[in-house]
UniProtKB/TrEMBL annotation:
<keyword id="KW-0406">Ion transport</keyword>
<keyword id="KW-1134">Transmembrane beta strand</keyword>
<feature type="domain" description="TonB-dependent receptor plug">
    <location>
        <begin position="114"/>
        <end position="222"/>
    </location>
</feature>
<dbReference type="InterPro" id="IPR037066">
    <property type="entry name" value="Plug_dom_sf"/>
</dbReference>
<protein>
    <submittedName>
        <fullName>Iron complex outermembrane receptor protein</fullName>
    </submittedName>
</protein>
<dbReference type="InterPro" id="IPR000531">
    <property type="entry name" value="Beta-barrel_TonB"/>
</dbReference>
<dbReference type="InterPro" id="IPR012910">
    <property type="entry name" value="Plug_dom"/>
</dbReference>
<keyword id="KW-0998">Cell outer membrane</keyword>
<keyword id="KW-0798">TonB box</keyword>
<dbReference type="InterPro" id="IPR008969">
    <property type="entry name" value="CarboxyPept-like_regulatory"/>
</dbReference>
<keyword id="KW-0472">Membrane</keyword>
<dbReference type="Pfam" id="PF00593">
    <property type="entry name" value="TonB_dep_Rec_b-barrel"/>
</dbReference>
<keyword id="KW-0410">Iron transport</keyword>
<keyword id="KW-0408">Iron</keyword>
<keyword id="KW-0812">Transmembrane</keyword>
<keyword id="KW-0813">Transport</keyword>
<dbReference type="InterPro" id="IPR039426">
    <property type="entry name" value="TonB-dep_rcpt-like"/>
</dbReference>
Length: 818
């Protein structure tokens, strides 16, 4: 009998030896919070994994035997655990607080925590990498709730835009490592100035609504909190190249030393992106680099970041006239001369470009003072300088402060010329946060920032096509601006058994002034001093470890931007905006389904809304409305259908209304403005329904096929809801052109396919192949637009301009990791 068992064992031994087993689990801290980014390594064979956004890790294709797991995470004590593998094992590990301070303190002071009564979404480096084929950062966020993205060039490279809950980028607070990124004057965030910043991001948190207190411009639609490169313990080198439609090319090289001597690390990246754009004359030439060096002490971390972006983009910000989009019979028989423009009636100038360089310097310091108290602080400086250049046909000399000139007996009052409008700015300041945890169930944070901005706006005439004796680089206006921004906030989270109580208070002081001669040669001098108090409170009830319900109330205040001031006299200065934000929701996480539903009611006072028109540099014109609101429901979920098939889904329904809105129409007959009061109307660029879907299938190890969908319902491009003043009708010429007859963007449903496959070969840690086919069904749609509605006689004339998005296009990539 013994011999029989021995023979059976001998026969089964090869089968057992060749069995493919796995080790998986979740990495948390001692209170059960996930630690995304934790490093897990094993021996025999040597391999490593990084915990995902939920703290989960896994090793596949392992043979039976003895293994040693080593888990490390900055700010926590490393842990080693022996595992005897005879079957698939689930090994969950909880790490204790360590002696090294966590770099994340720098950004966590302005972030929502696991059970915060706030609507938020976290994206890990892995999440971002899946979609990073070279498009601008807003496109990496397109599948998160309530987000709509747009591209001036039509393909996601160059100038892009983002809206959250219908609010544009001027109302979305953006911080990079806790440092404000929004432009101090326009309050927008121009990610084109940081090409391929996605490749240097470790994680992002998107908050919707007012959210937690943060630094910089007030968050009305939401906030985007970016954390860049963090510590990697082993050396690495990565090369990535993407190529695709419209001459689009992206090349990226990055490398890091890993942890040297237990104290030092150095990381760097360089990137270059080019695209001709889908729209004619919408090319982009972009360059960037990112360098980060860090020193790790027993109780402190010091990190220095230096990063820069350079962009030259052809000006596509004015959009395409509706009659061009709607007329399929048009032909392009233009003849260009050596400067790129055709004749005396056009402005297709070859250097009609925006040219800008932005350099960032950050010094981040984190200190663990005691087991209960930690400090984080940052010094920062940003230097930006650039211009946009344009050709002007038969431009009046009086626009440049020049009287008519007599040359050879002829009086010259206008000439063709080329001008540059410059922006030269400096932004610097300090941010700080003290985190105090007197007991395990109580966290308190005291933080804030002081930042100063100085910006010079000026214009030069660099070329004149009529000899009028103008000096070289003739400066015809200069307007200098200064803005001081101070804020201080205090926040506390108190855990009482299953209840989390949250309170947050912020005081913000702003001083803004500008003086000089503006681009219209008017004496421009204004000052504004604003004080805001932004309280917030919330409660979360935890049913169990996997589900909770929450409610919150927050107040936000937001100052007007530069154009709001410049386009109005001091006696008619726009008012600051006030928002009362009510939020309530339910969240659940489990092995099969993770998701939540959130309801919001955002009540505005004196909201600055878009009129639908653009000024001469493509910026939207706005006006105060006394009463308006946004109310809606957001859903966000992910379900595991089977082990290899997942479905992620988001959906937002909302009503976005203005009460008693008055619209004025210019009268082309020279008469007074025609006004119309609308009792209730829709807020411009606020679709009532948005949704996204990602169906992801992993057929083989390292392989993924994803079908990605995005739906955006109809949205208006002004605040009239396409209503005309009484007694006026659309002109017969416009009535036959649906693009011109309506002041709206039609709904669209766009589908993409993404394929990725990663594998290893000897000498290369990882080889990645990727293909993304965008708009696979070639949906014809416009994602953005502008309108100028006038009256003539008894007719309405709509001058509409749209931003068509690209039909079917692709990007393919290959990456190597060493």
């Amino acid at each position: 009998m013994k011999n029989l068992f021995a023979a059976i064992a001998a026969l089964l031994l090869p089968v057992v030896a060749s069995a493919q087993l796995s080790i998986s689990g979740k990495i948390t801290n001692t209170v059960g919070e996930a630690l995304p980014g934790a490093t897990v390594s094993i021996n025999n064979p040597t391999a490593s994994a990084v915990a995902d956004a939920t703290g989960k890790y896994h090793f596949n294709d392992l043979k039976p035997g003895n293994y040693t797991l080593k888990v490390s995470y900055i700010g926590y004590q490393s842990l080693t655990k022996n595992v005897v593998l005879g079957a698939n094992e689930i090994v969950n590990i909880a790490l204790s607080n360590g002696t090294l301070t966590a770099e994340e303190v720098t950004v966590s002071s302005t972030r929502a925590i696991k059970n915060s009564p706030t609507a938020y979404t976290n994206l890990s480096k892995k999440d971002l990498a899946k979609n990073n084929f070279g498009q601008d950062l807003p496109y990496m966020l397109n599948q998160t709730p309530s987000v709509v993205v747009t591209s001036d060039a039509g393909a996601g490279i160059g100038y892009t835009g983002i809206r959250i809950r219908g609010s544009d980028a001027t109302r979305i607070n953006v911080t990079i490592n806790g440092i404000p990124y929004n432009d101090s004057e326009s309050q927008g965030s121009y990610f084109v100035d940081l090409p391929d910043i996605t490749s240097s991001i470790d994680n992002i948190q998107i908050q919707r609504g007012v959210g937690t207190s943060t630094n910089g411009a007030g968050a009305f639609g939401g906030s985007i909190n970016v954390q860049t490169t963090t510590r990697r313990d082993t050396a690495y080198a990565d090369i990535n190249a993407s190529v695709g439609s419209y001459g689009s090319i992206k090349t990226t090289a990055s490398a890091g030393t890993g942890l040297l001597g237990g104290h030092f690390s150095l990381d760097g990246r360089v990137s270059r992106i080019h695209s001709d754009g889908y729209i004619d004359r919408a090319s982009s030439n972009l360059k960037s680099f990112f360098v980060s060096g860090a020193w790790y002490g027993k109780n402190s971390t010091l990190r220095a970041n230096v990063f820069s972006g350079y962009e030259t983009t052809y000006q596509a910000w004015n959009g395409i006239a509706d009659y061009v989009i709607g007329d399929n019979t048009r032909s392009d028989n233009r003849t260009y001369n050596e400067l790129g423009y055709i004749d005396a009636t056009n402005s297709f100038y070859k250097n009609q470009v925006d040219h800008y360089t932005q350099n960032h310097y950050q010094l981040l310091y984190d200190k663990k003072i005691s087991n209960k108290l930690s400090f984080s602080g940052a010094l920062h400086y940003t230097k930006g300088k650039g211009y946009y250049e344009e050709y002007r046909n038969a431009d009046s000399l009086k626009n440049y402060g020049i009287a008519p000139i007599v040359v050879g007996g002829n009086t010259i009052s206008a000439t063709d010329l080329v001008r540059r409008l410059w922006l030269n700015n400096d932004f610097y300041g300090v941010t700080y946060a003290l985190k105090y945890q007197p007991q395990t169930n109580l966290n308190m944070t005291l933080g804030g920032a002081y930042n100063q901005y100085k910006g010079a706006h000026y214009g030069d005439v660099i070329d004149v096509f009529t000899p009028i004796g103008l000096p070289s680089n003739y400066e015809y206006y200069r307007d200098n601006a200064k803005k001081n921004d101070f804020n201080i906030f205090a926040r506390a989270e108190w855990h009482l058994d299953k209840v989390l109580l949250y309170a947050d208070m912020q005081y913000r002081h702003i001083y803004y002034s500008f003086y000089g001669i503006d681009k219209n040669l008017n004496n421009a001098q204004q000052t504004a001093e604003l004080n805001f108090f932004n309280p917030k409170a919330g409660i979360t009830y935890q049913f169990n470890e996997h589900s909770n319900v929450y409610a919150s109330f927050a107040v936000g205040n937001h100052e007007p931007n530069r154009d709001d001031y410049v386009d109005s006299p001091p006696q008619n200065r726009p008012k600051s905006e006030n928002l009362k934000d009510f939020e309530a929701g339910y969240r659940i996480s489990g092995p099969v389904f993770t998701g939540g539903i959130n309801g919001f009611y955002m009540l505005y006072k004196n909201q600055l809304v878009l009129t639908g028109a653009l000024n001469d540099v493509g910026s939207p014109v706005r006006t105060n409305v006394k009463d308006s609101y946004r109310a809606g429901l957001e859903f966000d979920g992910k379900v595991k259908i089977v082990n290899q098939l997942y479905w992620g889904l988001t959906a937002t329904w909302s009503a976005n209304k203005i009460k008693n809105y008055q619209q004025f129409f210019a009268n082309e007959d020279g008469g007074p403005l025609v006004g119309e009061t609308l009792k209730t109307t829709d807020i411009a660029f606020s679709p009532s329904l948005t949704g996204s879907s990602v169906i992801s299938y992993n057929p083989v190890k390292g392989g993924e096929i994803a079908f990605i969908s995005k739906y955006v319902s109809r949205q208006y491009i002004d605040n009239t809801s396409n209503q005309n003043p009484q007694g006026y009708t659309i002109t017969p010429e416009n009535a036959g052109n649906p693009y011109a007859a309506n002041r709206l963007l039609n709904s669209y449903f766009v589908n993409d396919v993404r394929i990725r496959y990663t594998f290893k070969v000897k000498g290369v840690k990882n080889i990645g192949l990727g293909l993304q086919v965008n708009n696979i069904f070639s949906e014809k749609y416009e994602a953005n637009g502008a309108t100028y509605a006038d009256v003539k006689g008894n007719n309405i004339l709509n001058y509409n301009y749209f931003f068509p998005q690209a039909p079917r296009n692709f990007m393919a990539s290959v990456s190597l990791s060493f």
